[in-house]
Write a structure and sequence with these properties.
By secondary structure, the chain is of the alpha/beta class. It has two domains: 2-101, Response regulator (Rossmann fold); 132-188, Arc Repressor Mutant, subunit A, CATH 1.10.10.10. 62% of the residues lie in helices and 13% in strands.
Length: 192
Amino acid sequence: MRVLVIDPDSARAALVAEGLAGVEPLEVRHAAAYDEAEAAAFAPDVVVVAAESPDRDTIDSLREASIANPRPVVMFVDRSEPELAQAAVRAGVAAYVVDGLAPGRVRAVLEVAMSRFSLMHQLRRDLEKARADLASRPTIEKAKALLMKERTLDEDAAYRLLRKLSMDSGRPLAAVAADLLAFAGVLKGDAG
């Protein structure tokens, strides 16, 4: 496991490493402040931010980093305010622990956070795919209708033909449907 610990206090950061004793293989790096270039170069499995109190700059950096390079983040803070906890969670923090940095808890919190991150990441991918599928549905329906009309096929046969074209070309079904509609437009003289 590769762990990046962000904490200006090296003694507090050492508590995180102590809590991970026995994890094999383990590589822990410590940095006083979050730097995305450094994090990307290290490619941690999890980022641990430990601090007296979270600050907006760190939360903003984590938000930006989670967009470009999502990874599980755990925050251990000594004290917090509700709006900062909410901001941290919106920034992609998988676990936000107040006044709970003890070596005996670190490993369990990291494991749960990594599992939660993995689940949320999969849910986001599924949601993006569902949105893309939904957005492409009208194009696919129009292409099916065109094939039904021009080739006198029933709906199932038109869909099977679209799928075959998609598989044969190695392209997404929506892209093949869009191409078919574009070519039909050109043949009818609709493209100018």
